[in-house]
């Protein structure tokens, strides 16, 4: 297999895993003030992602670094063209990180409220904007020989916004299910009820997205050419239905694993449709950034492949190990007793 | 102002701000890991309290290092698209490897360390902070190999209108990158040592927890002495490498205008850029500069006039940054030598003048670290990759002045707030002193295994 194709798969995998793991962090960050009624509950909710959110965010950094190393042409144009949108995401992620890490460091109600707003805004904005960005990538960016012809506001077109809302709802359901799994009693029940209700909205938006995609993008062309790939979007739909099915059977864990699979397959549905483009041009397909015209040299790709094949499995291994260490459900009593132990 | 100037300012603000946190992380992670290992080895709870107290300050600093680090991974593409396209084939690799090999490791195990006191055995818990320490140091290695390539590009050919990597081994063994790594790492250790000594001095001045802070002071003093001596040793090798590979930077660091053999080292120099000479040049040590540069008393030092004006770095900031940094470096050796001697004495807490000096010395290594970066990055100008690509050819074409003005203002405000929070939290928790209540973390940790 050509190295460009290996790196295209890896590129898609890095984004998919990033959305799967930081996706529930975003959901938790968006929901914590609404699901948590008391200070103890809010603290518990944030504590569920405390040990893991930082390691989850590194998938984004690695996705960025891998784009740089494997497809420098795309890295350069994608990030300079989407400058303002990316900047908003960066600011939001900084604010979220500070809110999460420093919320318990100052014992004042005002400070905690400030951090809660930071965590909410820092989770809501990236969840929406990543969707808007990918929606625009799916339909193509207005670029040609003379450069980029878009603006931040042109990114907020109907298809971009629809994809943004899709991501937002996906992460809200995903985060609510994570909370249902990681907490006990009333808190867990409230979280699962939020997941259950948001799921209907997600279903509607997902159906709209699948239909609108046929008109707004060229994504289905690859599927029509090779129908075997339909297995991915079909799995996405089944996984989405699985969320509800497991919830009805009372298995939050099954429901959460289904939402993990949904996020992964939704991302791959888009990625497969893009091939061989990384960013299509909406003006002239000769100026699309493809995995062939924007990639690094075969030598660099070969070295990066060796590095990735050795270290990515190691990373996945120790991250799973750490998740297992923190697998227990949390209760507000325990978390409050922990006090300032960290 | 144009997008080039604005983007340079923004890079200076974001990288400089990130670099406030990095050096402390590099050194303090090792000190905390050492303290916790001593606890595991001796079962002396004083060491556990030390790991907890210094660990808390470490975490406040670490969190800001992480959140400000994300910006750097993306802004090469955002503001320096032409650079990214031109050198991405070789420069992207170390950045991606850093994220995969080091950043994951530190970010995952810091979570285990913070929340895992009751979840894993004592040994595994200590191992997790060692993994964090190793990962942060490894992280610095990859970043500095990337920066070392910008200073001294190796292992590439110009092909397909860009620099393509042909020898990964050359990138890995770039001596410039390794010297920069050693110098930066050790300066981080010096900074962490002075941080721990300074905070300890504060409490000793108040006669607060004398035993605890004397022991902390002693550990940091030894660490600081070794690091401050080595940082100078590596620094001289580094300067020699600069003289060989970046003659314009070296000439600016020493403000040498005319090419000369057996050049003297002048202790007192005031550069006069307009007239291409030094306004003042006094107290010279004959031939010493030639020896410093090439370890040869008669070696030739190239002067700035040898190079066209548009290929010279800004002399005044590079020269003064280098002089002040170097002077501070010697001061650090002197202070940590005194600290090592004093910490052996029983009445350290009574040496009030010395403790005050150490308290007020906390900002000095921060200053030296920033100045060192100014020398490295300003001294490389007008090149972004020395001799290969000019900074003015590297900036993104798709960005506009209002966009970068907005982002620069945004970063400055946001980072200003973060700085305020950081200083507030660090001083609050540093003043508070160690926590004696270990019940929350000790309730099951004594005999539990994973």
Structure overview:
The complex is a heterodimer of chains A (342) and B (450). Chain A is mostly helical and 342 residues long. Chain A has one domain: Up-down Bundle (Formate dehydrogenase/DMSO reductase fold). Chain A has helices spanning 3-35, 39-49, 53-70, 72-81, 83-102, 109-139, 152-155, 158-182, 185-216, 220-225, 231-248, 252-274, 298-325, 332-338; strands at 143-144, 147-148, 277-279, 289-290. In chain A, strands 1-2 form a two-stranded antiparallel ribbon. Chain A has a two-stranded antiparallel ribbon with strand order 3-4. In chain A, helix 1 (3-35) packs antiparallel against helix 6. Chain A is globular. Chain A starts with a helix and ends with a helix. Chain B has one domain (3-245, 311-442). Chain B has helices at 3-42, 45-79, 81-115, 122-151, 168-172, 175-205, 210-245, 247-254, 288-294, 315-343, 352-360, 363-378, 401-432, 439-442; strands at residues 156-159, 162-165, 260-261, 265-272, 277-285, 300-301, 383-385, 389-390. With 450 residues, chain B is mainly alpha-helical. In chain B, the strands form four sheets. A two-stranded antiparallel ribbon of chain B has the order 1-2. Chain B has a two-stranded antiparallel ribbon with strand order 3-6. The chains are: A mainly alpha (342), B mainly alpha (450). The interface between A and B is large, with 67 and 75 residues.
């Amino acid at each position: 297999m050509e190295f460009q194709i290996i790196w295209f798969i890896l590129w898609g995998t890095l984004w998919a895993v990033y959305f799967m793991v930081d996706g529930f962090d975003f959901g938790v960050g968006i929901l914590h003030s609404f699901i948590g009624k008391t200070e103890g509950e809010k603290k518990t909710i944030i504590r569920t992602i405390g040990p893991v959110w930082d390691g989850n965010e590194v998938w984004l950094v690695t996705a960025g670094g891998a784009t740089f190393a494997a497809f420098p042409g795309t890295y350069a144009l994608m990030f300079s063209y989407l400058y303002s949108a990316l900047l908003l995401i960066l600011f939001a992620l900084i604010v979220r990180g500070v809110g999460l890490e420093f919320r318990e460091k100052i014992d004042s109600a005002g400070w905690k409220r400030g951090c809660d707003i930071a965590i909410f805004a820092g989770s809501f904005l990236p969840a929406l904007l990543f969707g808007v960005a990918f929606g625009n990538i799916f339909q193509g960016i207005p670029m040609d020989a003379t450069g980029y012809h878009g603006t931040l506001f042109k990114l907020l077109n109907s298809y971009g916004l629809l994809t943004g809302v899709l991501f937002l709802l996906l992460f809200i359901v995903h985060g609510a299910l994570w909370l249902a799994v990681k907490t006990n009693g009333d808190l867990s029940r409230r979280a699962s009820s939020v997941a259950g209700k948001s799921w209907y909205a997600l279903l509607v938006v997902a159906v709209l997205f699948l239909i609108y995609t046929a008109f707004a993008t060229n994504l289905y062309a690859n599927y029509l050419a090779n129908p075997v790939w339909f297995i991915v979007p079909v799995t996405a739909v089944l996984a989405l239905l699985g969320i509800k099915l497991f919830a009805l059977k009372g298995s939050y864990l099954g429901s959460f694993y289904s939402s993990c699979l949904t996020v992964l397959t939704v991302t791959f549905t888009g990625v497969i449709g893009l091939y061989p483009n990384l960013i299509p041009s909406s003006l002239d397909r000769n100026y699309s950034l493809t995995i062939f015209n924007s990639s690094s040299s075969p030598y660099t790709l070969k070295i990066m492949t060796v590095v990735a094949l050795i270290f990515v499995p190691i990373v996945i291994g120790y991250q799973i190990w750490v998740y297992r260490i923190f697998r227990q459900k949390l209760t507000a009593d325990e978390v409050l007793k922990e006090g300032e132990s960290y | 102002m144009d997008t080039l100037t604005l983007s340079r300012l923004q890079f200076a603000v974001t990288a400089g701000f990130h670099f406030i946190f990095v050096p402390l992380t590099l050194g303090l992670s090792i000190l905390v890991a050492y303290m916790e290992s001593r606890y595991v080895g001796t079962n002396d709870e004083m060491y556990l309290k030390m790991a907890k107290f210094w660990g808390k300050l470490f975490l406040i600093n670490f969190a800001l290092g992480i959140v400000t680090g994300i910006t750097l991974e993306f802004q090469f593409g955002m503001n320096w698209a032409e650079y990214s396209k031109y050198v991405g084939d070789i420069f992207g690799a170390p950045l991606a490897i850093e994220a995969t090999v080091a950043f994951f490791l530190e970010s995952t195990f810091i979570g285990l360390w913070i929340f895992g006191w009751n979840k894993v055995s004592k040994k595994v818990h200590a191992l997790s902070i060692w993994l964090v320490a190793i990962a942060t140091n490894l992280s610095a290695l990859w970043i500095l190999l990337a920066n070392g390539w910008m200073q001294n590009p190796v292992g590439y050919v110009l092909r397909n209108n860009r620099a393509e990597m042909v020898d990964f081994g050359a990138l890995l063994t770039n001596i410039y990158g390794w010297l920069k790594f050693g110098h930066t790492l050790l300066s981080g250790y010096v900074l962490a040592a002075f941080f721990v000594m300074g905070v300890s001095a504060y409490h000793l001045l108040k006669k607060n927890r004398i035993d605890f802070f004397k022991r902390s002071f002693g550990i940091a003093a030894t660490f600081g002495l070794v690091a401050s001596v080595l940082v100078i040793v590596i620094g001289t090798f580094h300067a020699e490498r600069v003289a060989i590979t970046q003659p314009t930077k070296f000439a600016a660091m020493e403000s040498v205008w005319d090419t000369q053999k057996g050049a003297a080292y002048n202790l007192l120099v005031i550069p006069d850029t307009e007239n291409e000479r030094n306004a003042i040049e006094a107290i010279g040590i004959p031939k010493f500069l030639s020896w410093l540069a090439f370890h040869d008393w008669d070696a030739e030092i190239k002067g700035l006039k040898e190079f066209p004006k548009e290929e010279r770095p800004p002399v005044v900031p590079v020269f003064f940054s280098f002089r002040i940094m170097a002077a501070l470096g010697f001061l650090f050796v002197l202070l940590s030598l005194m600290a090592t001697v004093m910490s052996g004495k029983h009445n350290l807490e009574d040496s009030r003048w010395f403790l005050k000096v150490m308290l007020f010395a906390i900002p000095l290594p921060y200053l030296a670290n920033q100045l060192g970066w100014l020398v490295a990055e300003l001294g490389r100008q007008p090149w972004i990759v020395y001799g290969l690509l000019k900074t003015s050819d590297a900036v993104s074409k798709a960005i506009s002045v209002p966009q970068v003005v907005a982002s620069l203002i945004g970063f400055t405000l946001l980072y200003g707030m973060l700085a305020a929070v950081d200083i507030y939290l660090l001083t609050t928790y540093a003043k508070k002193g160690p926590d004696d209540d270990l019940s929350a973390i000790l309730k099951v940790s004594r005999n539990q295994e994973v």
